TrEMBL record:
Function: Required for the export of heme to the periplasm for the biogenesis of c-type cytochromes.
Source organism phylogeny: Bacteria, Pseudomonadati, Pseudomonadota, Gammaproteobacteria, Pseudomonadales
Main location: membrane
InterPro entries for this protein: Haem_export_protD_CcmD, Heme_exporter_D
Transmembrane residue ranges: 17-36
The entry's keywords: Cell inner membrane, Cell membrane, Cytochrome c-type biogenesis, Membrane, Transmembrane, Transmembrane helix, Transport
Keyword Transport: yes
Places the protein is found: Cell inner membrane
Protein name per its UniProtKB record: Heme exporter protein D
Family: Belongs to the CcmD/CycX/HelD family.
Membrane topology category: Single-pass membrane protein
Length: 58
């Protein structure tokens, strides 16, 4: 499918709202799937560091 202008490309044959919202939702899900494990890993490492500091203080 070819488009004659950028406006036509963005409109996607009058389906632009659906197409671009689908891309946006997909991007949000991908970001969520990246961020949640990274935050969980950081939290786990912080908790482990606190546990090690407490055990050394005894």
């Amino acid at each position: 499918m070819s488009f004659s202008t950028w406006g036509d490309f963005l409109a996607m044959g009058h389906h632009g709202l659906y197409v671009w919202s689908a891309y946006g939702c997909c991007a949000l899900v991908l970001l969520w799937n990246l961020m949640v494990p990274l935050r969980a890993r950081r939290r786990l490492l912080d908790e482990e560091a606190r546990r090690v500091r407490r055990s050394k203080a005894r």
